[in-house]
Amino acid sequence: MKTRITEMFGIEHPIIQGGMHYVGFAELAAAVSNAGGLGIITALTQKTPELLAKEIARCKKMTDKPIGVNLTFLPVVEAPDYPGYIDAIIDGGVKAVETAGNNPAKWLPILKENGIKVIHKCTTVRHSLKAESIGCDAVSVDGFECGGHPGEDDIPNMILLPRAAEELKIPFVASGGMSDARSLVASLAMGAEGMNMGTRFIATKDAPVHDNVKQAILNASELDTRLVMRPLRNTERVLNNKGVEKILEKEEKLGAHLKFEDIIKEVSGVYPKVMLDGEMDAGAWSCGMVAGLIHDIPTVKELVDRIMEESELLIKKRLEGLLSAS
Ligand SMILES: Cc1cc2nc3c(=O)[nH]c(=O)nc-3n(C[C@H](O)[C@H](O)[C@H](O)COP(=O)(O)O)c2cc1C
Question: CA triplet 261, 266, 270: central angle to 5 degrees?
């Protein structure tokens, strides 16, 4: 399948793996790229730029296909060493960067000077247009159903994607709630030129996370995610657990008076405990509603091959069949 996204990133299939804290290590990124998609290493999971450089080098030993790096701009006072991380990306020969969390304008010149394509993750049409106007090459349009930070507008992909198609000139991928051939074909029908998956890629044999995490996704239904931190305007969709229930109780009790410090125990330093140690009640970790559609733990290659084979069947048999039946 050829779209502006496959052409832009030099990949075989229009499937991207979104950056994921403590999941987007070299193993997963290499597996996705080897399967013909675009695998993405999550920069900030590496505590220093030097460690990111090592992770990129490790990934490049596992694949000779294009890989990307996610750079998340956090709403924190003491910013991580972004210039250092960008140097590691450039020196590592990476040609794709997924930016997220905040306007990447400040970093675009250096990325572009070094021939790097930038895909910015946006949860609104407004932000997508801004990304286009500042010179991003593509957008990842992240609907309300997504795992992680869906923003504050709450527009699901059934509306958000066709709205993005109405407004954008640069190509975009559909993100949030994507899991299979139905997701890809529907996204293409709504104007996207590929899809970005987060939660679905965690429940694969290649994801280097604790088995408890994969099992929790398998056991979860579409009813099992919760939104936390809405009073702080930093909404995150997470899988429900005892830590999340504590956050929600505090949010209900404190209302508009809630401060980050009130929930710090349940949201800070949680990812290594969950992803590496399998402590499933440690606190809030991102997970999409799409958990309800995840029923197995294939390898990344099995998953991507299945999506592409079934997409072809969906388009050629089911959709064309509907037309020829009339
Ligand atoms: C466990 C987890 C961690 C994530 N961490 C990040 C992150 O560090 N930076 C980022 O930009 N997005 C992050 N995301 C969001 C994903 O890149 C992607 O946009 C999202 O998962 C898409 O929704 P889906 O889970 O329904 O596929 C994370 C998602 C999950 C599930």
Answer: 120
